[in-house]
Each structure stands twice: as structure tokens, then as C-alpha cells.
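Exercise 7b. C-alpha cells:
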């Protein structure tokens, strides 16, 4: 199974950081969905770190979109970290689907964490090199 790391940054307000490493598809989807649900059901803002993800499929993207909607409905921030200095398969997926603007996407963890704390869920778009 592709590694998924979940950590909690306790600075006020707390932010859950979910890091996707490697390839993510149907095999890792259930765990991702569960990890995101636990955080959001607990009222925790979320940052999903995609900097080390080499592949995400449509099911993974659907889970991220669903979690973003759940965060928005609960007035919780939900942002993604995706390095804008390189163009990866993950960037390509956001470009092909047109869903880049559906997420608050930032090139650094600091910016994504600040956005999640501020309650942002959408609109930053994907920045490709």
C-alpha cells in the first residue's frame, strides 16, 4: 500500500496534515477517505501534502474533492500542497480535469497551513512551472 502519513500540528487552531507518498489509487483510497473523515469529523482543518505523490487516480481525486466539500460545509479550511517548481502527473490530473480551481493549492506547507487555518477551501489553483 502507498504510504499515507497523518500528523497533527497543534498550533491554534490545530491542522491535520495528510501526506501522500508515491502512487495512490483504489488500493489506498479507503485509508485516505477514512483518515480525512476522522480529521474533519473531529473539527480539524486539513492540509493534504501532495509534494511526494507520484500518481493519484480519479478515485483519489474524488475523495479529495468530497473531503473539501465536507470541510467547506463545516466551515473548516482544506488546502493542498503541490510544488509549483516542477510539473508532475498530479499537476497534469488537475489540469486535465479542470479541478485545480476547486481546491486551495499552495506551493509550500507554510502557505497551505495558513490557508487552512484561515478557512480557505478553494480558488488558489495549480501553479505549474
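Sequence design result:
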Amino acid at each position: 500500500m502507498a504510504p499515507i502519513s497523518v500528523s497533527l500540528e497543534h498550533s491554534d487552531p490545530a491542522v491535520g496534515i495528510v501526506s501522500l507518498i508515491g502512487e495512490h489509487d483504489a488500493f489506498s483510497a479507503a485509508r485516505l477517505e477514512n483518515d480525512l473523515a476522522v480529521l474533519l469529523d473531529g473539527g480539524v482543518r486539513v492540509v493534504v501534502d501532495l509534494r511526494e505523490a507520484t500518481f493519484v487516480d480519479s478515485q483519489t481525486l474524488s475523495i479529495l474533492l468530497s473531503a473539501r466539500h465536507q470541510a467547506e460545509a463545516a466551515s473548516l479550511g482544506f488546502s493542498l500542497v503541490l510544488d509549483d517548481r516542477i510539473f508532475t502527473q498530479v499537476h497534469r490530473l488537475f489540469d486535465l480535469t479542470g479541478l485545480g480551481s476547486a481546491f486551495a493549492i499552495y506551493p509550500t506547507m507554510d502557505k497551505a497551513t495558513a490557508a487552512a487555518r484561515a478557512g480557505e477551501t478553494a480558488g488558489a489553483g495549480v501553479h505549474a512551472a
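Instructor comment: The beta strands are 4-9, 15-24, 45-56, 78-81, 104-106. The two ends are 30 Å apart (CA to CA).
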